[in-house]
Amino acid sequence: MEQHGQAWLERFAALGHHEVEPLAVGMEGAVYRLGRGLVAKVWARRTPDELHRMREFHDELAAQSPPFATPRVLRVATTPDGPYTVEAELAGTPLNERDARPDLPGWEETKRCVLDVLDGFARVRDAAPLRGLAVLDEPRPFWSGHDTWSQALFALIDRRLDAHAPRLRAAVPDLDRRVARLRELLAAAGIDGRNALIHGDLCPPNILVDGDRRPLSVLDFGFLTTVGDPAFDAAVTAAVFDMYSPHAETVWTELRAAAAERFGYPPELLTLYRAAYALVTSNAYSPTGEDGHFQWCVASLLRPDVSELLLGTTEATGIKSTTGITNTTDTVTTPTTDAPDPAEAGEDPHGRGPEVPEVLHGGVNSVVRVGGTVRRPTAPWTPRVHELLTHLHAHGFTAAPRALGFDEDGREILSYLDGEVGHPPLAPALRDPGALDSAARGLRALHDATADFLPGREDGWQFPARAGAEVICHGDFAPYNCVFTDGLLTGVIDFDTAHPASRLWDVAYALYRFAPLTHPDNVENFGGLAEQGARVRAFCDAYGSVLLDPAVRAGLPEAVADRLRWLVDWMRSEAAAGNAAFQRHLAEGHDALYERDIAHVLAHAEEYRAHFLAD
């Protein structure tokens, strides 16, 4: 993700744009408002030739008069620091600023808006300039050398698999069989002959609306923009409109159904196109697949509805009668393989042998369960983390995974901890005082077990040791990294962020997540200030140690704010250094969410302080 830079601000000011200011960043580049109705976009990876083709693309699109505004490239310029374009600024408010969620008022208007945009693009006629763009990081236009949409799509799938299949095969069982079946079903579906414009990334920030959520403008073309079957754009939109929130499945289901009803697209075809999108974009942000988008794509390929179509039996071959896809191939049966815990089965404790993976939740890394083990990508700090996990078990802290070495694909192998993980928003049962008490005691036990591990091991971690380090902090002690059984903490996972620091450094973040000390509009928030303050007090009482000191408790609001400020700074530095996972997090507004929570905690610091110190 391109970042705003002072050099660009100075460059545009020197050109006479004295009102220049940063406007937005995205996967394709950084945008600056120049004033007088103009914006400049600094492109992250497009060449001047590509930008001239994009100018021709936008000129053709505008000539066809879609029912909303689209970008107009007025100038393509090159500099020693890279190319930029000058464009007319588009009107409207980003749809994500209108609470575009199914649990909030206005969702029906949001769905109507999205369908109106898809309808507008479906009415754009195929034309040569619209076929001129490359997609993803491809060097040539998507349509180069192809006569039909299916030819171009299948060729793209083949190229992406040639480059990235080993990583994907490690996470998706029967990948080659799935791909072959996907091609068969799409070829039988008659997907050629209705080419229209495909935007390829219709998410809320890219749709600008008026006060009634009517589309005024659409922006950010280029990531997967081309011409082809408009059902593909509908499927991608339904899938990516809300990829990571707790509402993602509801959004997919409702937008897919709405597109099927309005446009007559077969629902199963939309599901197949979601699988195709997952195949071609799985490594779009990280060649090694070490990011959240890769995990999302793996999860999409392993969805029950996708697996039913690609590996299923009767239901999969019934597509002909329910979707209009003519299916002439024989029934495919799927062998089933049980994957018992290797320790219980007396097998190799590394769990080698036939993999039956299950994709697990992971905020940044791709995490796959194989039997009684978990496989995760390694990093430079993995050896130190394994050393820590071994130490914890040797010193009686058995709630951590065991480090079991590495598999033939180079992934680390950890023991799987069974139970319920506290994914946000926290389930009511895990808001119980017993769960909170056990979490606090578990964190204290973890810290106590690492006190004698610290000396001589200040380096080798993902994060540098902090001044005044007392213990090895977990670094991300939150419900989503805790495993509960019958409402009590029984496991702690994901030690990648472990590093030497003070006890309070870890506690501050734990309180933020468990109380939770969040803005009322945060989806993870529950309880008012009094309840959150009481939960902090209970956590401190259960942890004991330094948290029994009234002076320490009085400083907790500022300690939480400092911890979150550090997190925001780190996310931004990682994104600026090219970390695709955190670039996506920033694009989704994670840093803004933390900053809002910081402001909330400090605005109510005195009220919180009174609750923390109450008898």
From TrEMBL:
This is Aminoglycoside phosphotransferase (APT) family kinase protein. Coiled coil: none annotated. It holds the Pfam family APH. It comes from Allostreptomyces psammosilenae. The keyword Metal-binding does not apply. InterPro entries: AGP_Transferase, Aminoglycoside_PTrfase, Kinase-like_dom_sf. Residues 20-243, 376-457, 464-515 form the Aminoglycoside phosphotransferase domain. SUPFAM superfamilies: Protein kinase-like (PK-like). Residues 322-342 have a biased composition (Low complexity). Keywords: Kinase, Transferase. GO terms for molecular function: kinase activity. Residues 321-359 are annotated as: Disordered.
